[in-house]
Design brief:
The protein is α+β, with helices and mostly antiparallel strands. It has one domain: Cytochrome p450 (Orthogonal Bundle). The protein has 18 helices and eight strands. Strands 1-2-6-3 form a four-stranded mixed sheet. A two-stranded antiparallel sheet has the order 4-5. A two-stranded antiparallel ribbon has the order 7-8. Strand 4 and strand 5 form a beta hairpin. Helix 14 packs across helix 16. The longest helix is centred in the middle third of the chain and has 32 residues. It is globular and about 85 Å long. The termini are far apart. Bound molecules: protoporphyrin IX containing FE. The site of protoporphyrin IX containing FE (HEM) has 25 residues, from helix 14 and helix 18.
Length: 497
Amino acid sequence: MDLTIVIVFIFAFLVSVLFLRRPKNLPPGYSGIPYIGSVQMMLKLRGKRPHIALHEESERHGNIFRWYLGNQMIVVLSGYDIIHEALVKKADTFSDRILFNRNPLFPRTEGEHGILTGQYDQIWRELRRFTLQALRDFGVGKASIEEKIAVEIETATEYLEGRNGKPTSMNDLMQQVVANVIFGIIFCKRYEYDDPEFDKTRKMTNNVVTGSGPVSPSLFMPKILARLLNPKDSEITASRRQSILKMRDYVFEQIEEHETTFDKDNIRDFIDIYIQTKTEGDESIRKFVTKGNMFRVIFDLFLAGSETTSTTLDWAFLFMTELPEVQKKCQDEIDKVLGDKVIEYSDRTKLTYVNAVIMEIQRCANIVPLNVAHSTTADTSVGGYNIPAKTLIIPSLYSVHMDTKYFSNPEKFDPDRFLDGQGNLLKNEALLPFSTGPRTCLGEPLARMELFLVFVYLIKRFNFAREDPNKPHTLESKQSQVTNAPLPYKLRATKRN
Ligand code: HEM
């Protein structure tokens, strides 16, 4: 073919993609080169924590801006008002998850649908309803789960006592506490912390979480380009896929084992609820509660429920070492209100300052700073701009927690912002660590229980201090993946009298 024809063809193609097919009144931001995307934006993201880079952009463009990865349009929403408009008021068009359509880690296999990664359809709705009900039946928010959490807290206490004030990493300890709670709920199992099997199963999920950015460029570009950008991409994906397959074998083994010992008068865990529903449940729900779907739901509970909660606790103890006066005020309130009484979740309403501190920890820790990406199911609008169907939406929860309309002086760690003059707790609708709308975190009640009980028990029993009193630890987070974790640190936990 004549070279001129090829050039004219490419030129016409670029013009058509860039100009002709673009809908009117799109949000401001960056245009993109076909198949590559907005190079300018990608350069800005390099080496930066994504939520910070996107926040800086929102300060330039406003509370809504667009950019492209490959041909995929991405719209970033910043601040409470516009995120509420999209995720709550226009929930029907803003609650899908096309992000996972292309992800080789989460194939939409027939009969294996998840909640976290699921499309906004009837399967997602039924699985979400079933799981929420199962968690409730099984005792989330009730004493039975409280007992499981208490066992883990006792083990953590023994561990910290054994450390005897020596420098200790809370990260690993909190991961073990939280993972065992979920193991208990799902498999009625608890592992000793030094059990190699425990380490192996925890590593399977960690391997899937770590290394996955909120939005990976490789998902939206032709493979050859993605490989150029990140030569190790396919290797990492293959190793993570292996972890998922191992996890699947593990879940299937557990289901088979449960089937042989199932007793309908003694429902032990989530898997027993699944077996019961499968045999006795309504036909309308039975068709969704399949073995494959249960694997994906269990996988989601581990994926979404372990690192988020343990990292929040990791931040909590870091804040306490850096803010001893806040720690002391929490201890004083716990001592005064509860004395030597065994701490129960129902005590939470009495500990207003502690509650305000936990709220401020969640605001400042920004555990899922860019949320889990949403997407649009139809042409729609938000903030006065048009948004086409199948646009990837990043509702920045970090920006909500930095929104000066709702949080004055947002850079400052200040639990008093959640208290009125009389020390009563104030509700602030813009505190959204668990997001908002129909996709809001399914594990919120469990996470709240774990955060309250672990924090209150341990802060009552120990003083947490810096490893070196003269060396403050930075409160900057590390280069974030999906979750925003502190830089590794060690503290000294000494027993209180
Ligand atoms: C402090 C701890 C936690 C935080 C900060 C957190 C935060 C979040 C966020 C921001 C989302 C995305 C919501 C959206 O797309 O708009 C989410 C979804 C989800 N979370 Fe959590 N989460 C936590 C703990 C848990 C726990 C303990 C579980 C379960 C055991 C859990 C299970 C889920 C599931 C299944 C979803 C997907 C919901 C859906 O797509 O319908 N999370 N979480």
